[in-house]
Amino acid sequence: MNTAALALQLASAGLPVLPLRAGKVPFGNCPACLRNACGGRPNMKSPGRCMCPLPCHGWAAATTDTHRHTTEWAPYWERAAAVAYHPGGAGLTVVDLDNADAIAWARATLPPTRTVPTTRGEHWIYRGTMPSANAVRPGVDIKSRMAYARWLGAGEGAMAVLPDVVRALVVKAPAPARPAPSGLSVDGAGGECPHRTPAFLERGLAMAEQRITAADSAVHATVYRAFLAVLSTHGRCGCLTDIHVNRLFAAAQAKGESLRHCTDAWANARTRLGV
Q1: At what angle do helices 219-234 and 198-213 cross, to 10 degrees?
Q2: How far apart are CA 59 and CA 224, in angstroms?
Q3: Radius of gyration from C-alpha coordinates of the chain
Q4: 71: which residues sit within 8 A by CB, 6+ positions away?
Q5: Confidence band (pLDDT; 50, 70, 90) for 192?
Q6: Contacts of residue 11, Cβ cutoff 8 Å, sequence gap at least 6
Q7: 55 class by beta-carbon count within 10 Å (0-12 exposed, 13-18 middle, 19+ buried)
Q8: Residue 36: which region, alpha, beta or left (left: phi > 0; alpha: psi -120 to 50)?
Q9: 7 phi/psi in degrees, rounded to 5
C-alpha cells in the first residue's frame, strides 16, 4: 500500500496523520508560512492562529480530514517517504525504545501494552497523553503531545492505560529555591507576577523568534540559545503553553531545523536550567 492510501486509511480510522519526506522529517513551510510569518499553527484545538490547509507545521498539522488528504495534501503524499501520526492528537503516548537495553528495561519495568517493532527497537503504545521528551533515560524517548511518530504498523497486544511510571520519566527534580528578584512576588505574597503579563511574555517570544529568523549561521546554537533565554525568564512561573512552544519550534523549523533537533534543544535547555 502506498503512503497516500495508507494515510487515507488511518485518517478514516481517526488517527491524525501527516506526510514525512526523506530523512523522516516533515515538509517545510509553504511560502505563506515561511519564517513563521503566519504566526504559527495552533495547538490542534486552539483557534486564532495560522490555519494553513497544507502540512506546514509538522505534528500540529496532522489531521483526520480525509478530504484534505485527497486534495490539498495529494502532491505531498505523492512525494512522501513515510506516514507519521500525532500520538497526542489521538490520545496516545509512544515510548520509543531505541535498542535492546532499552527494551529489556521496559520489559522489566513497564506494564505490557501494544508493541510495534521499529528498525532499531520497539514502540510501546499506551492510552493517555503526556509531555514529549527525548532521552528520558538511555535509549528511551517519549512521543505524545507536540511530537510525531512514524507509522510502522498496528502492532500486537492490548493497549494499556498510560502508567505513572512513564509519566514520571519527564518529571524534573525541583530546582533549588532562589531569592525572588526585587519587585517580584511569589506564592501569592502580594502583587502580580510580571511574567503573567501578556505583553511581557509576547515580547520575549517575539525576540526569540526574531533571533532565530535572523540567524545566518550556527542555526543549531542560535535555536538553543533562544530557547534557553525564553525558559530562563518564563520557564518556572507556568506562563508557557504548548502554543508558545510551538511558535518557537515553528520559527526553528522554518530555518531548516528538524522537529527532533527542536525537541532536543528544548530538553537540553530545560535540563541546564533545571525546569
Answers
A1: 170
A2: 20
A3: 19
A4: none
A5: very low
A6: 17, 63, 64, 65, 66, 69
A7: buried
A8: left
A9: -60, -40
- Return the residue matching grid coordinates 507556568: 238
Of 61, 138, 123, 118, nearest to 92 (Cα)?
123
Sheet holding 82-85, edge to edge: 25-26, 17-21, 82-85, 149-150
What's at 223, amino acid-wise?
Answer: V
Alpha carbons 90 and 162: distance in angstroms, whole number:
13
Strand-pair category, 160-161 with 122-127: parallel
Measured distance CA(46)–CA(41) in Å, rounded? 9
pLDDT at 48: 54
Helices (H), ranges, 132-235:
164-167, 198-213, 219-234
Please give the Cα distance from 41 to 119 (Å, whole number).
31
Q: For 153-167, what is each residue's pLDDT tens digit? A: 999 999 999 999 999
Give the tens place of pLDDT for each residue, 96-108: 999 999 999 999 9
> d(Cα 160, Cα 44) in Å, to the nearest integer?
24
Q: Residue 129: helix, strand or coil by DSSP?
A: coil
What's the average model confidence in pLDDT over 114-119? 96
What is the three-class DSSP state of 39? coil
Amino acid at residue number 193 = C
